Amino acid sequence: MRIALACAGIAGWLAVQPGTAQAQFAASVALTSDYRVRGVSLSDRRPALSLGVSDDLANGVFLGGTAIAQDAADSHGRFLAHEEYAGYAQRLTNGMTWEAGLDNQRYEGYGPTPIRLSYSEAFFGLSAGRVTTRLYYSPNYNGSGHNIAYLETNAAMRPAGGWRVAGHVGVFEPLNRWRGVAMRPRYDARADLIRKLGPAELSLGWAAAFPPAGPEHKRSRGAFIVGLAAYF
After folding, report:
1. What are the residue boundaries of the structural domains of the chain, listed by start?
2. In this structure, are residues 17 and 156 in contact, taking their beta carbons and an 8 Å threshold?
3. Residues whose CB falls within 8 Å of the CB of residue 67, separated by 6 or more in sequence, listed in order
4. Whole-angstrom distance, CA of residue 93 vs CA of residue 70
5. Which class for 224: exposed (0-12), middle (13-18), buried (19 or more C-beta within 10 A)?
6. Cα 143 to Cα 133: distance, rounded to the nearest angstrom
7. Which CATH number does 12-231 carry?
8. Model-level pTM greater than 0.70?
């Protein structure tokens, strides 16, 4: 497996946690057997590597960046994606936390029929305990003038020391008519069993999206995903 090491990112989904201001800088490196976004494989169901940084400032501001490389079918490591985000989070007196911010996503995509996406979003979220719900809105999805919303709920629990179970459900909703394309809501789900190993985490998960997303339906089919991440 030859994957380019010059990439930066966070294995963010491995640690489903509410956003809180903790004045903490972090870096990570992660390897996954399949890189998926909202249930759809953007790495053509092949391995991907990510490195990254994030910072939660004491004043409630948080920000971070991600870049990912994949093990392409031609056996050469290729740059796959970069993601950036920034926002503000504040804990309420009732223990809940609200957050709001912006993110930018760009995915190059490789394979016989690659998926290429480029969009920016605004988001708002609420967290209570181990459950976080976020609503995203993009007014110019993939540079096409299409308006979309995405709603997700993430949850995590710790059944035993060093173990975590994480779950995710989401719905992608087109908000206007897409000329020449019959669009309808798409749902995705994921579940992960995560084992903490010192500063690293090993995960085994399952993810899928339905109805399938084009151009290749195999990218949306349910699949088991293995991941290894280290945090610094």
Report:
1. 12-231
2. yes
3. 7, 8, 9, 50, 51, 52, 79, 81, 82, 83
4. 43
5. exposed
6. 26
7. 2.40.160.40
8. yes
